[in-house]
Amino acid sequence: MTNGRRRALALTMGDPAGIGPDLALAAWTNRAALELPPFLIIADPAMLAERAERLGLNVALAVTSPEDAAVKFDTALPVLPVTLAKPAIPGTPDPANANTIIEAIRLGVELTTGDRTRAVVTNPIAKSVLYASGFGFPGHTEYLAHLAGEAAGHVVTPVMLLAGPELRVAPVTIHIPLGQVPQALSTRAIVETGRIMARDLVSRFGLNAPRLAVSGLNPHAGEDGALGSEDGDIIAPAVAELRAMGIGAFGPLPADTMFHAEARESYDAALCMYHDQALIPAKTLGFHDSVNVTLGLPFIRTSPDHGTAFSLAGQGVARPDSLIAAIRLAARMADTEIETKTPQASSRI
Ligand SMILES: NC(=O)C1=CN([C@@H]2O[C@H](COP(=O)(O)OP(=O)(O)OC[C@H]3O[C@@H](n4cnc5c(N)ncnc54)[C@H](O)[C@@H]3O)[C@@H](O)[C@H]2O)C=CC1
Ligand SMILES: NCC(=O)COP(=O)(O)O
């Protein structure tokens, strides 16, 4: 492919009982007004046709190859077909469809690593539905790293970055129970997460010398050890190590005071210790315009920041904004990669 910009993005269907199909259909319907880059959806065409009818959307579907998707995108929604085991009922997830949901993700990665699509954009999956069918990964993030590691022949460490206009933030530990967080934290894990963030914020977001604000774990970042020892024993040495590597990291900062507007001026991204410490400020500041990005992979992956919202599926009330932001960001990251090595100033997303 000579012109990478004419390749389509690979969009996975997510859980077909959730809002993913609704959002994809809405995004395609508004493609011209929103000037969206072309995307190909990996989904069951019968499910898409049924959902479009239910939503009253007039969407032409074109089963097509990834190579033809960008050309077809103006007149029809390009579909790479997969087949569901059972018809999808909006709002009622069915573990019988888990294998197809997972296969759509795997195909998106295969197409993108094979240079047939530009990036992977994933629609939400319900983790518990996939666990019920034996899926052995906590979420997309870990599954994508597994697929990348298999292809590369070495372990790939993923970093979950939530990127919005007001805040970029990544947790060191991701999908683990809160009670396991202190044991899972190590200086090495924090340094590795910070290193990947700093590297990818340059190569994929076009930032120059990103500043990383590192949170503490305990109230008041441990209050000099009186409220917990991890801040001083594990996190502070990680910050020192990152700085010794030439990365503009600082902290550990009390997590409760590092997200207000003036504090956010002092950094390009925040590095937090666990899922909710990072995702609560991200979703509070920008639920509809933040994007979940997996850093550390050899390909680009974005996703809306929200989940399957089963109660909204098939009703035409789910907002497609975060998926649209994810589609746009994936294309922008792919452009930045093409123009690479010439870091440019970027707005905060
Ligand atoms: N990337 C992914 O695949 C993600 C998947 N999930 C999964 O989603 C499932 C449901 O998780 P919840 O915690 O309920 O989060 P959720 O994001 O699905 O819903 C949280 C609240 O936000 C509303 N909401 C979500 N998306 C919306 C949209 N586009 N427009 C308007 N309102 C919207 C929902 O109606 C609900 O009130 C879980 O199984 C979880 O594992 C959650 C986050 C990300
Ligand atoms: N809360 C964020 C989330 O669950 C996203 O997970 P993933 O499926 O993108 O790994």
From TrEMBL:
Annotated binding of substrate, by residue: 140-141, 283, 292, 301
A single GO BP: pyridoxal phosphate biosynthetic process
GO molecular function, one term: NAD binding
Binding locations of a divalent metal cation: 175, 220, 275
Enzyme Commission number, as recorded: 1.1.1.262
Predominant location category: cytoplasm
Note: The active site is located at the dimer interface.
Function: Catalyzes the NAD(P)-dependent oxidation of 4-(phosphooxy)-L-threonine (HTP) into 2-amino-3-oxo-4-(phosphooxy)butyric acid which spontaneously decarboxylates to form 3-amino-2-oxopropyl phosphate (AHAP).
Reaction(s) catalysed (UniProt annotation): 4-(phosphooxy)-L-threonine + NAD(+) = 3-amino-2-oxopropyl phosphate + CO2 + NADH
Family: Belongs to the PdxA family.
Keywords: Cobalt, Cytoplasm, Magnesium, Metal-binding, NAD, NADP, Oxidoreductase, Pyridoxine biosynthesis, Zinc
Compartments where found: Cytoplasm
Pathway it works in: Cofactor biosynthesis; pyridoxine 5'-phosphate biosynthesis; pyridoxine 5'-phosphate from D-erythrose 4-phosphate: step 4/5
Cofactor(s) the protein requires to work: Zn(2+); Mg(2+); Co(2+)
GO cellular component: cytoplasm
Keyword flag Cytoplasm: yes
Subunit note: Homodimer.
Cofactor annotation remark: Binds 1 divalent metal cation per subunit. Can use ions such as Zn(2+), Mg(2+) or Co(2+).
InterPro entries assigned to the protein according to its UniProt record, in alphabetical order: PdxA (IPR037510), PdxA_fam (IPR005255)
Descriptive protein name: 4-hydroxythreonine-4-phosphate dehydrogenase
